[in-house]
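Below: protein 1.
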Amino acid sequence: MPPLTLGHQRLPGVTVIAVTGEMDATNRADLEAYLAEAGAALAGRLVFDLSGVPFMDSSGLHVLLKCATDCLKAGGVVHLAGVQPLPARLFEITGVVAHMPVHERVEDAITAALNSSERSI
């Protein structure tokens, strides 16, 4: 399994977090540590680019939900983009899609996040 690769880009009004690799119990701590380090940059409007994530288990989902909850408490929103079939199925069966908007393309998620006045969760 390739290692989890994480990066973020601050754009005017939104931060895009790019995730590549499988998100599961083996690297949950890496994702949590990365999000904690990026902390201040992540307050506000966030877009997770998940186009490089072929698999996610409940551990990865939990980290995303905690990040979204923290963002919401700070008055922000979280949007997801480029979700591949297996993670999409996990989002569907857990009901996440009803609470975190999912977009096909990162550009669409950025636009929606910038235009969003509602909270994500």
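Below: protein 2.
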Amino acid sequence: MTIISKANKGTSIFILLLNLYYIPMTLKIIIARGGTWGFGLLVLPIFLTFNLCLISAYHGFRGKNSESFGLLMFNLIASVVGAYILYEIEFKLYFE
């Protein structure tokens, strides 16, 4: 197992862990139809885009795709952006 494969699996696990937050929040927004005035629908495309990153995280665990440097870069960018959005939504806005 090479370093790229290990890093790919690590970022894939991080994307899976971040989606433990994003999937329930996506379902809440869809069920609530965006909230009272519908402003939750503005965040929905961001959450759905990050939910689609589960596909690349799945491919990060597969045999020959786990060696791909391009997939590693995509997963790394997706995990950093997902963590930043989670930080902005949950921690920074909550404590200000």
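The chain has three helices and no strands.
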